[in-house]
């Protein structure tokens, strides 16, 4: 039906690595896969296998769950998009308790896969949208911190030098050229 690969972490794994909950739901217990370092697994590649045909109005959705947190939608694949590399933005453990069928808090991180109606899913680019939003917020915060170090106060107004944006942008560009990893910090 489907397979997954964790880039730089695993060989391709098929559906047999997952526990089947019912006809349309599967769970991968990350404790058995990587132990407590589940949050270091940042991406998953999910793909439909050639022998499986998903109806055109259905999608194979991927969710993640940290211990003590609810499931979080990460993305989906469809017949027209038979594979995807999805980011895994693990929530902080214990944010909200969501009780399982056994009335106990989940004790391990999980990746859930589910067959769902395509129309009921959020945009399949939801992860890309969140990445862009997170990156914009981090760039804005970087600019704010830079400007704050040059601020003066005049009553209820903050005063900054006229060339502050030019100076920040030049510093930002220079740092990105010197350190290729610098911009990756804004995308996480």
UniProtKB/TrEMBL annotation:
Origin: domain of life: Eukaryota
Domain Hikeshi-like C-terminal: 131-184
Alphabetical list of InterPro entries matching this protein: Hikeshi-like_C, Hikeshi-like_N, OPI10
GO cellular component term of the entry, any: nucleus
GO molecular function: nuclear import signal receptor activity
Record GO biological process: protein import into nucleus
Pfam families according to UniProt: Hikeshi-like_C, Hikeshi-like_N
Transmembrane segments annotated in the record for this chain: none
Domain (Hikeshi-like N-terminal): residue spans on this chain: 18-121
Family, per entry: Belongs to the OPI10 family.
Name under which the protein is recorded: Hikeshi-like domain-containing protein
Source species of the chain: Trapa incisa
Source species taxonomy: Eukaryota, Viridiplantae, Streptophyta, Embryophyta, Tracheophyta
């Amino acid at each position: 039906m489907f397979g997954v690969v964790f880039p730089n972490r695993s060989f391709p794994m098929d559906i047999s690595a997952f526990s089947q909950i019912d006809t349309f739901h599967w769970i991968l217990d990350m404790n058995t896969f990587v132990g407590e370092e589940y949050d270091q697994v940042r991406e998953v590649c999910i793909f439909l296998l050639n022998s499986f045909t998903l109806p055109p109005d259905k999608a194979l959705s991927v969710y993640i769950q940290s211990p003590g947190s609810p499931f979080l939608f990460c993305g989906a694949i469809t017949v027209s998009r038979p594979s995807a590399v999805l980011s895994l933005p693990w929530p902080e453990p214990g944010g909200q308790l969501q009780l399982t069928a056994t009335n106990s808090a989940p004790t391990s991180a999980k990746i859930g896969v589910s067959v769902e109606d395509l129309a009921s899913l959020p945009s399949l680019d939801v992860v890309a949208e969140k990445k862009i939003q997170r990156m914009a917020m981090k760039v804005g915060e970087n600019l704010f911190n830079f400007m704050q170090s040059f601020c003066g106060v005049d009553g209820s107004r903050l005063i900054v030098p006229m060339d502050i944006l030019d100076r920040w942008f030049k510093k930002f560009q220079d740092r990105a050229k010197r350190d290729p990893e610098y911009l990756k910090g804004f995308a996480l």
